[in-house]
Amino acid sequence: MIFLDLPSIHISSLTLYSVLYLEGAMSAAASSSATPSAAQVLSLFRSLLRAAREFPDYNIREYTKRRTIDSFRHNATLSDPSQISTAFAHGKSQLAVVKRQAVVYSLYDSPLRSVMELQQVPF
Amino acid sequence: MASVSATSLSFQPSLKLSTRTSQGCYKTSSLEVVSVGWNRRTFPSLRSSRFCICAVKAQPETVQKVCNIVRKQLALPAESELTPDTKFSALGADSLDTVEIVMGLEEEFGITVEEDGSQNISTVQEAADLIEKLVQDKSGAS
C-alpha cells in the first residue's frame, strides 16, 4: 500500500485552485446574461494589462500580458452575443484571479531580478 | 474663471469705446497662449469680453518618444514616415492596439491615463500633449 505524503502547501494550493475555479465558474454563469459593450470590453482589457503589471516576477508578468493580448485578439472575431457574454464573464473571473495571484506573488517576492529587466546591457 | 481640463477660459470686461481690435499669439516655454480680443462700439452696460485660450504644447522629445513607442507597438519599420498628425487608425491600429499604445506610454513615462482621457487619443500629437500635461501635473503635485 502506497501513502502519498503530500506537503501541506500542496494541499492548500490545490484547495485554493479549486476554490478559485469554482468562484470563476459561478461568476461566469451569473454575469453571462447581458452582452457587454465595446467600452466595457476595452475597460476589461485595460484592467487585465494593469493587473499584470503588479506581478513582481518578470516571466509571469510578461506571460500574463501576452496571454491577455492573444486571448482578446482571438475573441475579437466573435459575433454570437452568448459567446461574447461568456468570454467577457470568463475574462472578469480571470481578472479577479490575476489580482489575487499578484498579491500572493508579491508576498513571496524574490530579491533576484531577471536579466531581461535590465535597462542597459552591461557588456 | 471657468476651467476645463487643459483649457482655461478667462473673460475680462472692457469699458472702452473703441473699434474692434485683435491680438496675436505669444509663446512662453511649453505653454502656448492664444488671445483673441474684441471691443464693440456700444453702451458701457453691454460690455465686451476678451477671450483667452491656454493649451499645453508637447515638446519635440516627447513627440519623438511617442513615435518610437507607436512604431514598436504596431511593428512598423524604422523608415516608415510618422508625423505628429498621423492617426493611429491610418497606421492600421484597432481599438485594442490603441489601448496597448496607451499602456506602453504609461509605462514609459510613469503616468496613469484615465479611461476617458485615453478614448480621446487618436493621433501622435494628441497623445504627446496629454502626456505632457500629465507629467506636468505629476511634477507639480510632488
From TrEMBL, chain A:
GO biological processes: iron-sulfur cluster assembly
Domain of life of the organism encoding this protein: Eukaryota
Pfam families for this protein: Complex1_LYR (PF05347)
InterPro entries in the record: Complex1_LYR_dom, Complex1_LYR_LYRM4
Domain Complex 1 LYR protein: 39-96
Lineage: Eukaryota, Viridiplantae, Streptophyta, Embryophyta, Tracheophyta
CDD domains given in the database record: Complex1_LYR_LYRM4
Membrane spanning stretches: none
Protein name: Complex 1 LYR protein domain-containing protein
UniProtKB/TrEMBL annotation, chain B:
Gene Ontology MF, one: phosphopantetheine binding
InterPro entries: ACP, ACP-like_sf, ACP_chloroplastic, PKS_PP-bd, PP-bd_ACP, Ppantetheine_attach_site
Protein keywords: Chloroplast, Fatty acid biosynthesis, Fatty acid metabolism, Lipid biosynthesis, Lipid metabolism, Phosphopantetheine, Phosphoprotein, Plastid, Transit peptide
Any one Gene Ontology cellular component term annotated for this protein: chloroplast
UniProt subcellular location: Plastid, Chloroplast
Domain Carrier residues, every copy: 60-135
NCBIfam families from the UniProt entry: acyl_carrier (TIGR00517)
Annotated function: Carrier of the growing fatty acid chain in fatty acid biosynthesis.
Protein name in the entry: Acyl carrier protein
Lineage of producing organism: Eukaryota, Viridiplantae, Streptophyta, Embryophyta, Tracheophyta
